[in-house]
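Thread title: Can someone regenerate the structure for this chain?

I was given the following input by a collaborator and told the matching structure tokens would be attached. They weren't. Posting the sequence so someone can regenerate them.
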Amino acid sequence: MNSIKDNPILKREIMMDHYESPRNFQLIDDNSYRQIHVYSQSCQDDIKLQVLINNDIIEDIRFEGNACVIATASTSIMTELIKGCSIKQAKEIIENYFNMINQKEYGENILKEAVVFESVGRQVNRISCATLSWNGLKQLLNENEES
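Best answer:
Regenerated them for you:
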């Protein structure tokens, strides 16, 4: 059986599905959520990300904003992957994602649908789109540990 990353048509369908119907897309007016605003200086990508963490578990993660297909789809997939994870699990997913983007060894099973971005690392101009929200999440998790 072929994996997602070996099927360009399926990769495109997954990306477009997450772009047209992003998951966890709507912010909540709740001060218990940590929030970060990330944007790209080279693209139109402008995203606000919210995370609700309780007892080291990411109970909820949401986003809102305007961004290209890659930035929106990668954020949507990220929210699905991370929701319900412990901070330790989330950091492992993030590390694997960046390894994949940087063309290093990574766990395909850990990243699930996020493997659709596997070839982005070979398109330098798209790396910032695919990593924008992931960098924002990494920053939110680090701030959570510091507080």
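The chain has one domain: 4-146.
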